[in-house]
Amino acid sequence: MRTPLVIGNWKMHGTLAEARALAGAIREMIRRPRGVQVVVCPPFTALAAVAEVLAGGPIQLGAQTCHHEPAGAHTGEISAPMLVDVGCRWVLVGHSERRKEIGESDEVISLKLRAALAHGLTPVLCVGETAEERRQGFTFTTVEGQLRAGLAGVAAGELGKVVIAYEPVWAIGTGVNATPGQAGEVHGYLRGLLSELASKEVAQAVRILYGGSVKGENVDALVAEAEIDGALVGGASLNAQGFVAIVRRAARAGAASKE
Ligand code: PGA
After folding, report:
1. What pLDDT digit, counting tens, does each position of 136-154 carry?
2. Which of 81, 104, 109, 193 has CB 3.0 to 4.6 Å from 94, enough for a Cys bridge?
3. Ligand 1: residue whose CA is nearest its atom 9
4. Which member of 104, 129, 167, 227 is catalytic?
5. Structural domain boundaries of the chain?
6. 7-238 CATH fold
7. What are the Cα distances from residue 164, in Å, to 17, 53, 231, 241?
């Protein structure tokens, strides 16, 4: 049984005051989440402040990336143990914006993912094809390559600790989400690969989230798909009410689809 998971990726948004207010409002509205797990990923500058706001509550803290070394001469970077120190339990790795804008390679992403695991963070490995790759029929080869490379070097026994997010690049921030059918078939494919890399049991336990223009209006149909275990939400996670509506709907749809 996979508990639906909803992660808010705040990206590069928010002053400290805005981050505190957003986290506070979400915490206020989600006092006892039932049948759903909730994580927010503020920018680095707001992690400590948001950690304070969320302390002792059910909503967990994540970061949007980390460096693969624990410490050292890496100007501008933040390490996994630093994230743990500030209260994070989660970290996104390989988000398509970082692959594209920062040039993060599959090799670096795999180092980050292993660093996260080594320090007790849950890595959320993001994979997804561009519009061009989909048009050319390379959707499955693209996500397969990203999944295999991102998980390279992870012991089979550790694979169950990872969360995967399928985020088609063409759906991120565009308002055009993948249809439940399109997402469902990629999720099923990814789960098949996990089965091969680890075992059927582990593959059945790993949560695979969908991300890309998720909002209150489309989350039910997405999470109702048997293979979709929650959502990675960007834009719509910046509004407390909108985000909480997504969380509630994901919990209901998740429970209904597993009945
Ligand atoms: P979006 O972003 O919800 O704004 O499309 C999703 C993401 O990039 O994680």
Report:
1. 999 999 999 999 999 999 9
2. 109
3. 234
4. 167
5. 7-238
6. TIM Barrel (3.20.20)
7. 31, 27, 10, 26
